[in-house]
């Protein structure tokens, strides 16, 4: 029976027939790998997901972690799953060999990890945060910090978090108040509180490595005065042994609509519950230079944003596959034109409106998966660039696509989950079936790691204008290459290519008109609409790329690809015309609305 987590056939198509990732083995960084090792990793991840992660997904949702004032307790299957993943040496699968990593392409690692997210996004979250934490310290930390904290994370002994938000500041990091007071020995002591910290406390690992944003007294105001610190739950000796408890205290757990299996915490630093060495404050180790915390943390945040997007895709994908299986098996009704009411009922997949909902889901999740893996391949090109021009192009494309790869799947794969519930009918709204949990879990993804609105401001306010519009030009060039290939193929592909060509030219013209107006407030007021239109055009490009890869190939799989691509071009891409009209008009409805009018 086919898996209802992800489609291995689709992943193989995207990785090997479209992106041709086996060609990465020609680059020095990946030379020790082969298509066979890539396939083995995907197979292993699928097996771990099915055996250790999926079985407790509903159980961890029903029995979320609890806190008795001193200890967090959770179901034992979470620890078993994490130990199985760590035991397979997969935490460091994409990291450098000198750190003990397998130096796999990020494209393979992302595809493999998607199996875990589809199986159990909460348990997978502990690993995703640990990987991103380790990558940041490996890039900016000292050799001692790498040895003391990164290497134990890569073996699964330690886990990691990111501590940004505070109750009074939310996403406005300029307003954080956590402070780091320097000590004569060159260390720091931290005081403050952090909110919404996923994986912030538990008994799953020997230690938890917190990456904490804080301000050193006397530093510049706002975000320019923020520094980054490693603050472990337990101090670590020179010999790597876990020692004295640091003054990091769990104040309480947040109880969420979804993602219930991963602890979400309020952490207090330096409140005096523990006094390492007899001094007040939580011991912290500065990462890199003072006041560079935001730029450093964005290394982790951008990785996490791509991870959040992939998590949203995985949840949308598994919901789609489960609703597809249900639609094949559920008999109900007869064709609208049926005359014999005594005839057997037909599977609901035969009804046109059910096929519409399934096609919509397929177009969202397979289009988003293509986008996520395309971005992962850009990361691989960055890590193995063979020229400065290649590196620059990959960086420009990844910069402009990261907010899209985070937010578009978070919006539209959530809609796929919504449609999966609808396909199930009343059963989809019950806890008996998985799809209601997938919707609840996915509802977090438009919020964390930067809300939809923050991503839209990043895209429109920074990414499309950076370096004189270089990122937008790079995207246009890449899309036009696909359009030219479609034109050369002729027929329907040429027609779809022309439709995409018109859409991206209009997007570019509207973007220039918005900023050329000089009314920046009006231009940015509808940034969320811009992100949605931009995302739809980008995913249409991903679909054209897939259709080019499927061109001339026969079989149900390829026919399904072509039909889903047609659906996106006929039902979804035309929506952007009205959105671009609104954006070009520089509509001020939201700006002119007054609080008293609500």
TrEMBL record:
MF terms in GO: flavin adenine dinucleotide binding; oxidoreductase activity, acting on the CH-CH group of donors
UniProtKB keywords: FAD, Flavoprotein, Oxidoreductase
Domain Acetyl-CoA dehydrogenase-like C-terminal as annotated: residue spans: 488-593
Acyl-CoA dehydrogenase/oxidase N-terminal domain boundaries: 42-156
Domain Acyl-CoA oxidase/dehydrogenase middle: 162-266
Source organism superkingdom: Bacteria
All residue ranges annotated as the Acyl-CoA dehydrogenase/oxidase C-terminal domain in the record: 292-457
Database matches in InterPro entries: Acyl-CoA_dh-like_C_dom, Acyl-CoA_Oxase/DH_mid-dom, Acyl-CoA_Oxase/DH_mid-dom_sf, AcylCo_DH-like_C, AcylCo_DH/oxidase_C, AcylCoA_DH/ox_N, AcylCoA_DH/ox_N_sf, AcylCoA_DH/oxidase_NM_dom_sf
Cofactor dependence: FAD
Family note: Belongs to the acyl-CoA dehydrogenase family.
Descriptive protein name: Acyl-CoA dehydrogenase
Organism annotation: Mycobacterium kyorinense
